[in-house]
Write a structure and sequence with these properties.
2 domains
Length: 249
């Protein structure tokens, strides 16, 4: 069991570093581990090339060994397939587009692109994870769960989330029913102030609803007046075509 615990702690450290460079103190705070334990884990991970330190006494970041492993894994293969879809979606809508993959009860932000002309950029959250019900792409995936699976998710959220973050079960079910009917999540600043977002779920190589593709932008200019239905249609079409591509690979 000690070995399993060490692995779990090592991954908790790596999850923090997936969000960006961090020092021992910051990692310890985020993982709720003793600084001595974090230092020992970082030393072992650095020896294997899984993390690197910018300089003596500096912050740590994900190392080349993990990048090499990732490049050979299924996520990298999915990423190479999805990338043209989000690039096109961004170009033809003028928003920033990307996708998330389901990681248990979280949506993990894998990739994001923008049209290059945006003066006010929506924060790039690549490498971060959020509870499924808190982001548009996560809602798109939740809408694909069975009733039992959704009940399980709500039970887990009620146990792990703070009261302010825990979803209202009835409200969430009503919203998901609308998503199922429309095939797309439409968020008009209700999930993130100042941001309009549209998302639709896609199937992964195994046929499961593994993730969602989205497009979003500042609410003051995205989408253009009278353009919302076109954007919705494009997101749904992209998710459908992406599913066909991934499942048929």
């Amino acid at each position: 069991m000690a070995g399993v615990q060490s692995i779990e702690r090592a991954f908790s450290v790596l999850r923090v570093l997936a969000r960006g460079t961090a020092g021992v103190t910051e990692i310890a705070e985020r993982t709720e581990l003793p600084k001595s334990t974090v230092s020992r884990l970082l030393s072992a991970l650095e020896h294997e090339g899984a993390v690197v330190q910018s300089e003596t006494g500096g912050g740590y970041s994900v190392g080349p060994a993990l990048a090499t492993l990732g490049a050979a894994g299924p996520t990298a293969s999915v990423r190479s397939t999805v990338r043209p879809f989000i690039e096109e979606l961004s170009a033809i809508t003028g928003g920033s587009s990307g996708y998330t993959l389901r990681d248990g009860d979280s949506a993990f932000w894998v990739d994001n692109v923008d049209d290059g002309d945006e003066l006010v950029l929506v924060a790039d959250q690549t490498g971060q994870s959020f509870p499924l019900h808190t982001v548009a792409s996560g809602l798109a995936v939740l809408a694909k769960l069975s009733s039992d699976e959704l009940d399980g998710y709500l039970d887990r959220m009620s146990e792990t989330e703070t009261e302010s973050m825990s979803p209202d079960p009835d409200e969430l079910r009503r919203r998901l029913a609308s998503v199922r009917a429309d095939g797309v999540v439409v968020s008009r600043e209700d999930m993130h102030p100042g941001v309009n977002a549209f998302a639709a779920a896609f199937r992964g190589p195994g046929g499961d609803w593994d993730g969602a593709i989205y497009v979003q932008g500042p609410s003051f200019r995205f989408p253009d007046a009278g353009d919302e239905q076109r954007v919705v249609k494009l997101v749904v079409e992209s998710a459908t075509q992406l599913s066909d591509r991934l499942v048929g690979r």
